[in-house]
Amino acid sequence: MSNFLIIGGGVIGMMTALQLADAGQQVTIVERGICGQESSWAGGGIVSPLYPWRYAPPISQLSRWSEGVYPTLSLRLLEETGIDPEYRQKGLLYLNVDDAQAALGWARNLGKPLERVGAEFVRKKEPHVAAAQESALWMPTLGSVRNPRLGQALRARLQAMPNVVVNEGFVVNGFIQRDRQVLGVTTTQGELRAEKVIVCGGAWTATLLDSLNIRLPVRPVKGQMIAYQAPPGLVQRVVLKDGRYIIPRSDGLLLIGSTLEEAGFDKTTDSEALASLKQTAESIVPALSKHSVAYHWAGLRPGSPDGIPFIGALPEWSGVYVNAGHYRNGLVLAPASTHVLVDQLLGRETLIDPTPFQPTADRLMTDLASL
């Protein structure tokens, strides 16, 4: 029997497992598909909320700590697995920001480099980006990671660790319960027991917890993205305009995202989103009109009230915990949010005050209609 059983093999579940395994714990992951293949794969990989000054302080705390982890985590995984998560710190250009003063005030308060720049600065940094308006914002410290490869590297590392068991293709049917205590799970491959169970099911977390009569206000929010295979160097850094972004990869792949759609668990793509995303891409980088779209896909984000995740022990039950509801910032917040939970699981002093993230009865009773 493992010390810990983790339901969900996304970035949140895998980073939780890695931290527990590093601490010498016996860990089992249960994943219905292949680890790292849902929203962890489908996102863009920007290591920051898109407009960080617009988020509540608890999210800013998590994102600031996580941002500093990715360079060393990526190097570690490359050395251990030979898979490069491709962390790049090339900065971010914000175009058409209508609350620039708020952004600059936020940056001053945190001591974070963010400056107003002109159109000439933008042209020098990104010659193929359409001319900015009178000014733009420039954040030189922002990084990005190639999230599918991050998932592959985490999976490979966990599979190589002797105190970790990765069970893929295991669908969880329910929880093993006794006297308000969760002792494990039932799956399509049989029962699995553990001292503590951690639910990291992303957009599916609320469905998983229904059998415990826990009403977690987390729901799927579809996001469609496209990618162009462009010449390497056409765009060098992340460019954000009017809530959408272009993210470059080292091989010239350019990701453009994303839509926000309330469509339940539907992950189909459609021509309307494709046209809209193409229009966004070509308005930012006109040269993309000469290239065809190479890929078009969709993923499901775990939406939650105000985008604040649920991290901690579930009320009225013993032995079961949750880490879910990160909305658009699962990868952004993963290192810190998993550290906050692992600190609690192991009885350590918490890195960040866990109070705002606790799945208290009041938070669980939030009306889904208000999300």
UniProtKB/TrEMBL annotation:
GO MF assignments: glycine oxidase activity
Q: Signal peptide: which range, if any?
A: none
Annotated FAD dependent oxidoreductase domain residues: 5-343
Entry's transmembrane regions: none
For this protein, the record's InterPro entries field holds:
FAD-dep_OxRdtase, FAD/NAD-bd_sf, Gly_oxidase_ThiO
Q: Which pathway or pathways does this protein act in?
A: Cofactor biosynthesis; thiamine diphosphate biosynthesis
Q: Which domain of life is it from?
A: Bacteria
State which Enzyme Commission number(s) the record gives.
1.4.3.19
- Give the UniProt keywords, A-Z: Oxidoreductase, Thiamine biosynthesis
Name of protein: Glycine oxidase ThiO
Question: What species is given as this protein's source?
Answer: Vreelandella zhaodongensis (Halomonas zhaodongensis)
Q: What is the lineage of its organism?
A: Bacteria, Pseudomonadati, Pseudomonadota, Gammaproteobacteria, Oceanospirillales
This protein's encoding gene: thiO
